[in-house]
Design goal:
Spore Coat Polysaccharide Biosynthesis Protein SpsA, Chain A; alpha/beta; UDP N-Acetylglucosamine Acyltransferase, domain 1; about 450 residues; about 20% helix; 16-stranded parallel beta sheet
Length: about 450
Amino acid sequence: MNDTAVIIMAAGKGKRMKSNLPKVLHNLAGKPILNYVLDTVDQLEAKRKLLIVGYKSDKIRELVGDKIEYVEQKEQLGTAHAVLQTKKLLSDFKGDVLILSGDVPFLTVKTIKKLLKHHQTNNFCCTLASTILKNPKGYGRIIRDKKGEIKGIIEEVDLSADRKTITEINSGIYCFNKDKLFRALEKITPDNKQGEYYLTDTVEILLKEGLTVGNIIVKNYSEILGINSRLDLADTSRKVYQKTLQDLMLQGVTIIDPSSTFIEQGVKIGQDTIIYPFTIIEKDTKIEESCLVGPYSHLIDANIGKGVRVWASIIESSTVKEGANIGPYAHLRPETVVEKGAKIGNFVELKKTVMGEGSKASHLTYLGDATIGKKVNIGAGTITCNYDGEKKHKTIIKNGVFIGSNNSLVAPVKLGKDSYTGAGSTITRDVPAGNLAIARSRQTNISGWRKKKKEDKS
């Protein structure tokens, strides 16, 4: 493929998506549609890789970065007009041009190589990929003569009634001789119902010049179907999730209800782990063996150790080590580490906190920017007051500390080994090792308060 340039078309808005976001940036089972195409192209040893952008191109550039050459289509005047914008960049290039669509996510390297081989072996000036659909609505049709030779491609909006029954569709995937491609593009006119410059018209132009056009028919039609609407997006996402779940189950993971479980590609899960219904696992999450996750859990870029229980909780960019217990209704925010055997219970939130081995915060607690030692007990209703309105400050709790219920730990503050705090305390100073800290007002009972209150009202 060293003599091949790849052009990916991603300039359109995608009107049928009904969105202000470029169609190729919509999320498909965990990553943008365009990324599927780019990942495939990365596996090809192409000499040049060009991405045609247009609508909100800044968002696409932000996603893709500098790993590809960009071509701007400032006005979206059709697919032929889009490809024509690459002419200057490819002026010195000698070889074939492979054209792909940025909204066709499942085209395989195997099919692309088959197309290129067929094109180059037969010395065609253009080779296109097509497929057969029982319901071809929405796609341009391949027009053939009585001998079965390709005579052209007609977009659906321009089809006559008798040709709408044709079931062979155009995929929008082509390989062209570069020079013949651009010569044909210069001859295209917007003589159609949409008033656009169609790339499909190049086929008829080349044939009229007596040049040869080849074709491969892709048997697995799902490879070349594009995503044109949110209905397509939902249907395609479901297929991706199903395939991922099937692979995991074959590797020894139990998925209680695949229809209500959503796990992205790239997630790694060890055998004998059980995933309960209504669970979402995203990005590069890693879960070791013999874990229980869910129901109603959401893990994002999490690292979960062996034998961990996560119940109805959210874990973001955090690590939970072997044998720990999370939830229900816990929230681990980024940069949190829960050490072996620790327990994070009901309605507990941790942010940028290390929870030591065997320690526990069982309920109704917020711990932010804290380092907590081993076998620490955090009483219900405890919070670290880590933000002073300008800066975040750390709380350090050493091994064996017992925090009473309803404590406020005003950072920066340090609690020494085996120290205690009384319930209802607001701790503003360091507590030495082994000390008991009580920081609350002495209780006062006012005699006759109820009677006086009634008299005042009368």
